[in-house]
Design a protein that fits this description.
Length: 427
Amino acid sequence: MEARPSVDDAALGREALSVLDANWTGAATVPAPGLYPHQWSLDSAFVTIGLARTNPERAKAELAGLLGGQWRTGMVPHILFRTAGGYFPGPSVWRSHEHAAAPRHVATSGLTQPPLQALAAWWIWRYATGREAADAFVRRLYPSLAAQHRYLETARDLGGAGLAAIVHPWESGMDDSPLWDEPLAALPAVRYAYHRELLPGRHSDNHHDRYVSLALGYRDSGYAPAYLRQEHPFAIEDPMFNGIWLASCEALAELAPVAGADPRPQREAAERIRTAMTARLWDPWDGLYYARDLRTGTPIPMASVGSFTPLVDPYVPTDRVWTLVTALESGRFMGAAGYPVPSIDIRAAQFDRSRYWRGPSWVNTNWLLRHAALGHGLVDLAQALTARTLRLVRQAGFRECFDPFDGSGRGCRDFSWSAALTLDLLA
Ligand code: 2M8
């Protein structure tokens, strides 16, 4: 465990703000200097939430800037290339400028990430001190957020049951999770020549070649929804992605009256997702939500932190909440690890305490589960998640992720969502 002098709440908050200042490009907050030198949509949504109370103007700029990169299809890209910083795959791979629906002023990727943006907009609105300005902000962003949800409903309901499918591990927010090992292994072996030195270094070459091949196949189809439906070999209904979408639909329904819009379509979408998650992703025997592989038509029966994130829906039935919380607090997750919440079941053969989404604990998933716990009135669980997450960043700094047993930092330093969500936990 790295030793750090103990810091009080005020000093921790100041440190978090200075990380976010250093990672601000003038138009967006990059996830971390060096490794991630552009704007990522999931990271930006968490940064927005973290800054909503301490620096609302920057929170608004972050979210509005991200939505400025939205495609005319409604798709919010997972990366907006904001700097000259090297990252693979960069603009020359995605070639967004060749697509009529992509924005002209910024190059983007062609994939998306969990749609947390409406929840982030609601976070800004609910904590705003100036009502008029907050309402005006919601009126400005509402059409983009509604279009994002429409895109998921139309282009991404590949299973036809009301859930959005991810078409690449990068869309999950948990890119190297062992959840995707089997669907990736089922893809044909390929080998590409590319700038391996620019890769984050967390994946085997084997996996990376498949990541690139999935991205190129989709790109070469012209990012066509019909290609995703009929040919694309990777399509998964993921509980974390859909749980976040559900929460964003509810948030958008709350914001609809502010924007003079009808909340019913968002409430109906939330209900469709809720029903479909129960029918397709909930495993009543194991008492967990599992991802579902649409190409094999079977669940991926591996317990991950994503198995619990559907709890962000306050309407999950009480008996299911208790089943999930029992598993979460068991020796498979929080019970054995001193520093919650391991990204994968500690007892799984693939669990690796130091490799990104294959075992370590993350501030963003802890925050989501804390938010979920508060929605269900589980105050003790929320307090435990808050206290132990703050202990992690106090001891190891704003690292990308953490060893769940000894709390030592893993991945990048000065990681934006770890800093931003610390601000929210301290508020
Ligand atoms: C990680 O994903 C990127 C690909 O998008 C990567 O591995 O290079 C994930 O942790 C993802 O959730 C995150 O948004 C991104 C930037 O922090 O890094």
